[in-house]
Amino acid sequence: MNNQRVTDSGLANLANDLITERGLTHVAVITSGTTGNAALRDLDLRRPRLVVAVTYDGEHGETPADIAHLLHAMNGEGTFNLVIADPHHTYESTTAGLELGLELVRPGGVMLVHDCLPPRELMATEFQSGAWCGESYAAFRDVCLAQDLPWFTLDVDLGIGVVVKTDAVGSTRNVAAAVAHDSDASRAAYEHDPYAFMQVVAAADAEAAFDGLLAGNDITHLLASFKGWNAPTSPRLPESPPLITPSVEIELLVKQVNLLREERDQLMKQLSSDA
Question: What is the pTM of this model?
């Protein structure tokens, strides 16, 4: 993993490196109509073996539950080893999006979540047009804590939450029961020390943090110290329009179909040779 590339471009380069260097080649992308990180446009679609992308209209009331049936119809549960999530940034919508992501990722797989280290001016709880991070940071933290999953936040690109799904994870739809969310309390704790609240790791330590997390080791020694709100931080890229346009979605579906055909042809050849 190239730590400098991660620093420069954030989410896409991080995903590209995980696909190439860690073999996380089955990828799902979850975004809403008003999210979709700019860096994800640099996601190299030649690297993964399978890519499925879904988008929902969070601004007009659609939720991740409204698109879940699409993934369930293709037997998507446990199919992916890398999920990239940039849901609509209300607490409820992000929580539901991350729960869906955990359903999709197989044990030992990784989920990357955008907007987990926002500046204070982008933390409005209700939707606002333009740059907006909402309460994605709090939802990511609560989901990880409720499921007792290993996680950290990488200090690049408005904060990339990183969580590994362990073999021991239980039902992923119990966050509301496990966590009594208080927006004001979460914001106060975050503003006091966002690095401690979000278990922040600097970009320079990204590879070591991933190694530790994937191996099930303690990475507390890699956590960075908060230098104050006016201190310079790692580069952060702005939000952009949705990642998945109709043309890109068609391209992804065609790629998925072609991969399935290749696997079918290989299986038929194997069956013929066995006969």
Answer: 0.79
User: Strand 105-114's sheet: what is its strand order?
Assistant: 50-56, 26-32, 80-86, 105-114, 160-164, 151-154, 200-201
Taking the C-alpha atoms of residue 163 and residue 112, their distance in angstroms, rounded to an integer, is 7
pLDDT per position as a tens digit, 14-56: 899 999 999 999 999 898 877 765 556 778 888 898 888 888 8
Any domain includes 98: yes
Residue 88 maps to which CATH number? 3.40.50
> DSSP letter at 257?
H
pLDDT recorded at residue 8: 45
Q: How far apart are CA 260 and CA 252, in angstroms?
A: 12
CB 107 within 8 A of CB 166: yes
In a domain, residue 32? The reply is yes
pLDDT band, residue 110 (cuts 50/70/90): very high
DSSP letter assigned to residue 223 = B
- For residue 158, pLDDT beyond 70: yes
For helices 91-104 and 136-147, angle between their N-to-C axes, nearest 10 degrees? 50
Our count of domains for the chain comes to 1
Q: Long-range contacts: 202-207, Cβ < 8 Å, 24+? A: 202/155, 202/234, 203/3, 203/6, 203/7, 203/154, 203/155, 203/156, 203/234, 204/3, 204/7, 205/3, 206/1, 206/3, 206/6, 206/14, 206/154, 207/1, 207/3
Handedness of CA 187, 190, 192, 197 (dihedral sign): positive
